[in-house]
Amino acid sequence: MPNLKSPNEALSRSEASTSTKVTFSIDKIKNFSEWYDRALDVGDIIDARYPVKGMYIWRPYGFRALREMMSVMREIMDRTGHKETYFPMLIPESIFGKERDFLKGFKGEAYIVTQAGNDSLTEKLYVRPTSETVIYESVKPWIRSETDLPLKLYQVVNMYRHETKQTRPMLRLREVVEFKEAHTFHATAEEADRQIREGVAAYSEFFDRMLIPYIVVRTPSWDTFAGAVYNIDIMSVMPDGKALELASVINLGDKFAKAFGLTYRNKNNKESYVHQTCYGISERELGAMLAVHGDNRGLIMLPSIAPIHVVIVPIFKRGSEDAVKRAAENVKGMLEKQKLRVEIDDKPKGVGDKFYEWEAKGVPVRIELGLKEIERGELVIFRRDTLKKETIKAKDAPKRVLALMDEITKTLKERVDEYFKSRILHFLTVGELKKHYTERKGLVGLPWCGDEKCGRKLEEEIGIPTVGFVPEKHIDAACAACGRRDNTIEMYFGRTY
RNA sequence: GGGGCUGUACGCUAACCUGGCAGACUUCCAGCCUCGGGCGCUGGAUACCCGAGUUCAAAUCUCGGCAGCCCCA
Prior knowledge:
Distance between the termini: 20 Å
CATH topology of the largest domain: BirA Bifunctional Protein, domain 2
Strand order of the largest sheet: 3-7-8-14-11-10-9
Structural class: alpha+beta
CATH class of the largest domain: Alpha Beta
């Protein structure tokens, strides 16, 4: 559990409330780690009190948000020609170990089942840390000729990796609960290459719709996925300035095809290897979304995935309970006709309690409704993004609330764009970077000639690891390592999660 | 990969240094009071992370495990 002893913390707490109740008021930028843990707790997303490192309990409210987010992902996958499947979680060692680099990359963090009941197993079973091997082995008989290609599959499953780094809910886990992994099979290298661009486009659409800011980069050759030819990473930046890999789109070439004997008969009746790609996302995207949009009062749910769009808080006076309740039900009915998810909070608690609670959970709109409003035919509407209240005619509620969903989305987008812009910095030389990048927050770009030696040298000189580069975007500057000017591109560096 | 810190009730915390009845607030339960930004009152429930060691005696000291946080690479 977080330790709350910093002076800032004590100050913000006492300022926010005179009661000793734990108030959610944490400076997200100054104290992101603590903000994140507390916001997910008070915001009803995760219960972190599970005694196994890297595994967390999803609360219903949080899980609903995840489900909404994943349904957007499924919609995009389905629309772009991917078919949803399922492959087993336990993978025999003989299959898991078929591709050397992959085995080397994942062996250290795979959970391995060696015993069942009282018997030890004759062959070890690997719990999937990702499903390349089991899928590639299994689809072999599905692919016989070019007419079977391209084959584009995806599954949404849980997967396990024995992370040794510090774990964090949603961002770094040992048990990933909703791993959406896509695997595609193509006749030619060109087609696989095209699929990479399609995969990046699909993910870009997803992140655009989730209002998660990102840049698309190519990972340097010395830092690619185990068994990959190259990969494209989609990177974001968290409020503490650390970079977060949102997704990786990987071109596997025919390396796995060769290891698994994945071939088809081409037009000349010649056996050819398929070319493959794979790409995945997970609940990490929800963590990123919540992290970038929340404020010092807690979470702010993006309207498109909010488990509850509107919470109605009835304000009772003695004797008015029934009338207020009826009015609340009436408003709820009107809003639900607009496909809004609405909840009435008539729990016997003070309204202040309720307000703080729903704000921490990030419900986009709150409606306050008491005798005063009923008499005037009005409603008080509070929006979570700006914390502003307005009074409207009750009959205008459906129209106004729907409009507010768009307005809130727009505000969040503007805010997050501005935030992201301030966290991507560009420098021309190492000296300039060292002089100005003192807080080491966010991604930094430096001119780079494309040579691995120079990339590694820069990494070492500035003491920040490479994140990736944008291959097709040439810049007019000299490589910050060797000074060459031809073909200079920008390499991004950043501390990562 | 290396280093540091921490673990007391649902939550937050006191006692730990200097071993000797674990205390407050919050929460929860029962009841009263009633709801426009964390009401009040009465009564009650709930805790020393796990294991070993030292000791007459361990929340406190030592060792190990598990879990969490921070810093550096």
